[in-house]
């Protein structure tokens, strides 16, 4: 086992972790990736219930196979049980699963569901995505950045596109770690004010810069540009999509933008809508680290699970 083990009770939101905890998780993820055999019995005899209100490829596969690599058993609970809180209370769901499972992973629509599960479960809860946060993705992203840049504190990271759960987690984690972060969103697509203020306070405490702008021409010099889909899963209404695409068109991430910002890496959490938020040429280029990102979802999540079961 590695000396950098930390202890967690849950993994719910990026703003609940300190800089030292995040750095330890990043180091642990990289160590598990390099030495998986050292961790292949951490979850021996343990079962993890995986609640998925929303369909998934990377989250489902990375958790399922990652849990298996740690010696544990994963049980997938899909949409057949309906939305949390409708068929039965979230509290009852949490208490029932706690009778059988040793941990709960939940990919849900509402952060309130994550909070309810954590409040009423007697086992650890991991937020695999909600409407406000995507902490497993952000952790994997910073694992990826750590593998490509020797000093995270010197990295300049920009996110271009819709202010959503991915950008929320990225900006909070960047501010906590002391990474300069620029968020470029169309007018009216910014994160909610409370999250902006939280990020500003974290950045002030860490000494990093946090810039929010609607002007794509004000992106400045960056090392890394990150983007995500402009149209969220479940919101693909054709009557609305055309207006969204027109509004976001100036924010496409392409080789011209990379050159303008002098950026050397592009990231995307996938699935990508090619030729919308990112060009196919850039997505498939040597600047793209998107599949390294995808693999690191498993290692980052395994680091979280190891930390949860290190008590």
UniProtKB/TrEMBL annotation:
Class of this enzyme: transferase
The enzyme's E.C. designation: 2.1.3.3
Top-level taxon: Bacteria
GO MF, one example: ornithine carbamoyltransferase activity
Positions of the Aspartate/ornithine carbamoyltransferase Asp/Orn-binding domain: 154-307
InterPro entries, per the entry: Asp/Orn_carbamoyltranf_P-bd (IPR006132), Asp/Orn_carbamoylTrfase (IPR006130), Asp/Orn_carbamoylTrfase_sf (IPR036901), Asp_carbamoyltransf_Asp/Orn-bd (IPR006131), Orn/put_carbamltrans (IPR002292)
Keyword Transmembrane in record: no
Pfam family, one: OTCace_N
Keywords assigned: Transferase
Residue intervals of the Aspartate/ornithine carbamoyltransferase carbamoyl-P binding domain: 10-147
Tagged with keyword Zinc-finger: no
Membrane-spanning segments: none
UniProt-listed NCBIfam families: orni_carb_tr, PRK00779.1, PRK14805.1
Similarity annotation: Belongs to the aspartate/ornithine carbamoyltransferase superfamily.
Stated name of the protein: Ornithine carbamoyltransferase
Species in which this protein is naturally found: Colwellia echini
High-level lineage: Bacteria, Pseudomonadati, Pseudomonadota, Gammaproteobacteria, Alteromonadales
